[in-house]
Amino acid sequence: MAQLIAYVHISDDEGVRHVFAPGDELPDWAVERITNPKAWADGVPPSAPAGPSGGSGEIPSAGPVTAPPTAGVPPRSGAGSGLADWAAYAAGRGVDSTGLTRNQLIERLDAAGIPTR
After folding, report:
1. What is the pLDDT of residue 47?
2. Of residues 66 and 30, which shows the higher confidence score?
3. Most CB within 10 Å of its CB: which of 44, 66, 107, 108?
């Protein structure tokens, strides 16, 4: 299984935020949501194994956001407001953050109509 090389902050289906560190064993739902190649040792997000529903485990190329639209919106300042937090939030909503600063990413999310407050 692929290994994380960076800390990743993501929200689950209920909007609860989780932090995963390099070396952590990840649940399938987290593997599916961590799409930033910079988070993975080999630079490629892995596919999650098939779950109990018999799915293929493939990461879908597009699909609906399962979390409520405002669930897990990172704060604009203080703890949890860094680029990694915003990148994880964006990735969970299908927005690529590669090469963007935190403020540029927030602008991209706003332009896409994704809640940022």
Report:
1. 63
2. 30
3. 108
